[in-house]
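Key idea: predict the complex, not the pieces.
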Amino acid sequence: MRIFERLDELYAIGGGQGANRRSGSAGEQRAHDLVSGWLEEAGFEVERDSAANLIGRLRGTRPDLPELWAGSHLDSVPEGGRLDGPLGVLGGLEAVERIGPGERTLAVVAFRGEEVGCIGSRARVAEIGELPGAFVELHIEQGPRLEHAGVPLGVVTAIVGYSRQTVTITGRVGHAGTTPMDNRDDALCEAAERVLAIRNAARAIPEAVATVGVLTVAPGGVNVIPGSVSFTVDVRAPDRGRLDRLLAAIGLETGVGVEPTVMDATVVDAVKAAIASLDVTPLELPSGAGHDAGILAAAGVPSAMLFVRSLNGGVSHSPAEHSSDEDILLAVDALERTLRDLGSV
Amino acid sequence: MRIFERLDELYAIGGGQGANRRSGSAGEQRAHDLVSGWLEEAGFEVERDSAANLIGRLRGTRPDLPELWAGSHLDSVPEGGRLDGPLGVLGGLEAVERIGPGERTLAVVAFRGEEVGCIGSRARVAEIGELPGAFVELHIEQGPRLEHAGVPLGVVTAIVGYSRQTVTITGRVGHAGTTPMDNRDDALCEAAERVLAIRNAARAIPEAVATVGVLTVAPGGVNVIPGSVSFTVDVRAPDRGRLDRLLAAIGLETGVGVEPTVMDATVVDAVKAAIASLDVTPLELPSGAGHDAGILAAAGVPSAMLFVRSLNGGVSHSPAEHSSDEDILLAVDALERTLRDLGSV
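Result:
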């Protein structure tokens, strides 16, 4: 099938292990050139905006109607997965080609630099403008929820907001041999209690997560009781209420960080209806990672995301990232139906 | 007082912050040269053995009697304390000078490189030989127990044995945003539970301690669930039974590490009697750190240690290490009485 051949062709760029198309690299440019060629072959009108985003339009007969976009990004993390980004672009191309020219202009978009803070979609909504009437992004889930639910497709209801903060705990350095257990102020023991309290607080709030990913111990001697420990906390939740509730529960500053973004009800409903029409029960879930759809939604473009089931426990940003061919084809069908629904005049 | 002037003179070597007489450095050599001069001034016969240990003898009239040694070391950790080592050497010199020549040969010894694994005393007991009939080491406690008990002097009953082991915990790397809390195998959370379990196990065994001083998290990304954590555990106890009990309780290998060394009952009793004669109730305690007295004891030399109270919570290996002048003078008195008792024919 053409979509799989093309996914493989993008995945092979740069050689080596996994996807290697870092933002701004020759690999990302090569991917844009390939997709641009495929868009032109299929009769799309190709625009490269001033942020080097790629927009391929299938012009409609009624330029008065707002455009409808589908897409994602083509850059990757180093040694990334095969589907993260390209699936949304190539799935959009398949779906729009199947629909063919009509009254409304349909477009397939590939944003730049999603993995480095969505720089392409941010530039588009900020300086460039000319935004569509709606945007749908097909993406691999990058998590285990669809796999656990036994469901191939899901619809994203919100992009979680997050706050990243650093905690420093101060104890008292001491000699590991000469300081009795009842006379210690061990910063690592206190940090261990905090790490577990953070986990427990996050477990108590639905759809919220908190992660301690970096932790450093000072002075860091085998025979020295730790005098201070610093660690990072990454806290996420689908709305500000839950985000602040979790931040407060673990003693962090509230009201800060990146705001959660709720997806547009009309576009979400269109995705749900499309999934249901394929005899799949659509699972609603928040996206724990940021996406270009979140940037467009925050800028007022009615947006939603269609998630396809990750296998291998949801591993992502890794060559082990995987979805089945069957699920991918089902996702393209759902995307096609979503665009037909939203694009109907 | 002369002992304080001399402590200050040794402390000033190398300039800068704290004591700076690392093993093998010009600072350690300078300290040996100074003490050698003071020994000669006082009429001691000075030996430098093949490991560069310094032994100053006040010859007795009966060379058939085993020698009696007092002493410690002159090297320091970088930016160390004023008393750790020199107190035992200079205290020994004061005490032996006061006793003066008699039937038994008394000696003051300064071992090399105590802070780097007791290399001087190890060389003496291993290759060099010519060991005394008994050895008494006066040393600052380097811990808070005498301070907490409100007692200026203590006698060491054992040098704790210890085992240092490394634990590696393997979890599963995951995306901090997309992996729900109930689907994580977070190596840091498991490590935090282990750190607290280690603390609790050590608390349950009298005189035992366990310390996690080094802990590293991989891959160590703010937004990445830790996939593995390695940490060190330093476990100590005054006898093999308690050491193995604690090692087993925290899931570590038993029967390994450095054996505890029990001090000689006769020498311990002499120290206790000397302390008691000064109207101080002698506190018996294990030493959580290694000392030259432990090396001599393990080699069969009847040995014990006299501890003087640390102030400032027992801080050591730091310029904040401190004992009061009053306690130091009391300790020299106790050492003198101990040597008189042990040296009496």
